[in-house]
Amino acid sequence: MSYIEPAPIKDKENPFESMMFRFRIASQILGLNEEIYNVLKSPDKQVIVSMPVTMDDGSIRVFEGYRVIHSNILGPSKGGVRYDNNVTLDEVKALAAWMTWKCAVVDIPYGGAKGGIKCNPRQMSAGEIERLTRAYVIAMANVFGPDRDIPAPDMGTGQREMAWMMDQYSRQAGITVSGVVTGKPIILGGSLGRMEATGRGVMITTLSAMEKLKINPYQSRCVIQGFGNVGSHAALLMEERGAKVIAISDITGGYVNENGIDIENAINYRNNNGGTLEGFPEADKINGDDLLLIECDVLIPAALEDVITIHNAGRLRTKLIVEGANGPTAANADEIIERNGIVVVPDILANAGGVTVSYFEWVQNRLGYKWTKERISRRSDRIMKSSFTQVYDIAQKYNVSLRIAAYMLAIDKIAKAYSHRGGF
Ligand code: GLU
């Protein structure tokens, strides 16, 4: 529709622009009403805070933190908090919107949000990270809440930080509020299966896509970029399902073994090697950027945004890309990938297993009850499979990519919810 600005042609390597580019295309195909398009194109709330924190040497350093609430049309906003030196408000804005679409794709009753703190946790002590985390929760006292906005782990954060967030929020509230964050340690109300949930969802959607493409998992070769929580679990689960994982990578570079890497060995090596694969003896080392260009059946980027761009998209030698990370493909690469017949399972579907089990964690916290791991896996697998099928069917019906189909599924649901709720 003409009121929706045409998709921009420049700077689609900015994650927010990439997100907006796909959002616009999906909105145009849906014939979305202008009012709801305008509501969804800007985040509801953007909070920027400065947090003075005492460092171990007694000096005081001021850190900048963000929380962007993109939408709460479908429910309280949900999304992780990222600790990274390269965090920017624009990136957090894109990540928050992706959470809105992601929750809608898998049909869980949440809106979308994201947080970030500009810091380098690798160069900070546990005490410094704890003080920074508590300062962030104090600064976000009026933002967070189990019915308002619910943080979770993301890059640079995990169970430890979630425990501190839960504790700090609870201290301020004067009662234990376990449902204010997800991704907590099990003993504090964390859910069984949450750690591997994103990787598991990546595996389920990969197998679903392989079935459509008639790729036999037992004869497939898989390349995985990123060996953090998402990449390592996805690698392990793909290996369990018969795939040969021929290359993995982390910040230290790529590791290739054409005969297949033993993922359990790689995980053990990383765990006993200060958290990196540096020196992993069972593979040849290559440049991390070259890893993406290895010939394979499935490429799983599970690290950062914008790793597949106009600059390397034409040289990819895979049949299938499954986006374990948020935003790994810049919008300027979409056309090349499509033209070359590579199928992409987009981030807002492929990595939604994490937030799905976060939702189960929140439900268990509210019930004051614990589900078994089998129940969690069965339910999340069912959601991931049925979401894949819904997205696939839309893609077939409208002759669009799975990515645009996933945006269409999400935007349509949110538009319907908005039409019931109404504006001012
Ligand atoms: N940070 C994760 C994501 O990007 C999980 C969010 C959550 O569980 O709320 O999906």
Structural write-up:
With 424 residues, this protein is α/β, with parallel strands linked by helices. Among the domains are: 43-177, 3-Layer(aba) Sandwich (Rossmann fold), CATH 3.40.50.10860; 197-350, NAD(P)-binding Rossmann-like Domain (Rossmann fold, 3-Layer(aba) Sandwich). It is built from 13 helices and twelve strands. The chain has a seven-stranded mixed beta sheet with strand order 9-8-7-6-10-11-12. The model has no long low-confidence stretch (mean pLDDT 96). Bound molecules: glutamic acid. Glutamic acid (GLU) binds at residues 78-80, 152, 154, 182, 326, 351, 354-355, 358.
Which helices and strands occur, and which strands form pairs?
Layout (H helix, E strand, L loop, with lengths): L14 H16 L3 H8 L3 E10 L5 E12 L5 E7 L5 H17 L5 E7 L8 H14 L9 E5 L5 H15 L20 H20 L7 E5 L3 H12 L3 E7 L2 E4 L6 H9 L12 E3 L11 E4 L18 E3 L11 H6 L3 E3 L1 H4 L2 H15 L5 H26 L3 H20 L3
Parallel strand pairs: 3-4, 3-5, 6-7, 6-10, 10-11, 11-12
Antiparallel strand pairs: 1-2, 2-4, 7-8, 8-9
Glutamic acid binds next to strand 3 and helix 11.
* H/E element sequence: HHEEEHEHEHHEHEEHEEEHEHHHH
Number of strands: 12
What's the Cα radius of gyration?
21 Å
Name given to the CATH homologous superfamily of the domain at 197-350: NAD(P)-binding Rossmann-like Domain
Q: Would you state the CATH class of the domain at 197-350? A: Alpha Beta
Beta percentage is 15-25%
Bound ions, cofactors and other small molecules, one mention each: glutamic acid
